[in-house]
Amino acid sequence: MSLEDLTSTAPSWMSGEDDADGIVISCRARLARNLAKHPFAPRITESDQQKVIDEVLAAAKDSRRMTTASYFSMNALDANERRVLVERHLISPSLADDKGERGILFNQDESLSVMINEEDHLRLQAIYPGTQAQQTWAAIAALDEEITGAIDCAHDEDLGFLTACPTNTGTGLRASILVHLPALVLTEDMERVLQGLNQLSFTVRGVYGEGSNASGNLFQVSNQATLGSSEEKIVEGLLRITTQLVEYEKDAQQSLLREARSQVEDKVWRAYGLLSHARVLSSQEFMNLLSAVRLGLTIGLLKVPAVFINHLMIATQPAHMQAEAGGALDPDERDLRRAQLVRQKLTEVADGQ
Length: 353
Description:
Blueprint: H1 3-7, E1 24-33, H2 46-61, E2 70-73, H3 79-87, H4 93-97, E3 103-106, E4 112-116, E5 122-129, H5 133-148, E6 155-156, E7 160-161, E8 173-180, H6 182-186, H7 190-199, E9 202-205, E10 218-223, H8 231-277, H9 283-298, H10 306-315, H11 318-325, H12 331-351
Antiparallel strand pairs: 1-5, 1-8, 2-3, 3-4, 4-5, 6-7, 8-10, 9-10
Helix pairs in contact: 3-11, 8-9
């Protein structure tokens, strides 16, 4: 698979399946693992990093789930190509920007991936659409068994899996959901919800994880603790939180519709109109307008398919637009091209209905 093939298609986790009317975009499970016989970051040398890559790729060849997987070395990609992978949630900004020998292995539909030589030697990831936390955990557990079953991982009988950062020690599992919570933001209840999540040992980040902003009312919710609880308990906890967040958001939506229906409908249709006719769209403005359109889908006001909204969100990111244009675009050029792309795609989806 080439990066050109990648940018022309949508990842499977964007399908809109089981998304609770557009509220839950995706579920992700990520396992941190390290090879026992190589130094951990930051003491690892480039020579050891290459040995880690060779051992992992050799193990992946015998993995039934990665038989058609593609591998990309970060050092073989330019900055924009690496950013494309970040925008598709295949790699972290850290893997994109760090030095040394490192890479990404992922399957054809992008549901399974392995980052090699990020903070840990291995970051195995499964990402599925909507509320499919159990399926996501089953997929990553199976991949973990196939990959790490062929290599010796650093493990302590009492502590569990050993990691570069102590906060990942134990199961090494981070389970998360990507949720759209515009009504909770509009009703000013989000701060209360965030405090409640923190008390339950869940953390909330932006759409691209640690250090990113909650653009477009999208929030990534994940477990904080990886030590002292089983993987199954972590996933069960995430499922409970997901159910509660969906209920809170739907309650907030109904409150808005009871008290300010005209304003909500105006916000949705105004956003749709601006997206349909704008000639210039910044990334931030686009995400805010798309959030209102996604809200319109959730409350049944618009019939735009969720998969279309999800794919548009990725296709209009800076690196994707530059990849499609075949070269660098300055911010003004990106804003013009983004507006043109959105108008074109909205026309296509309207004609198809």
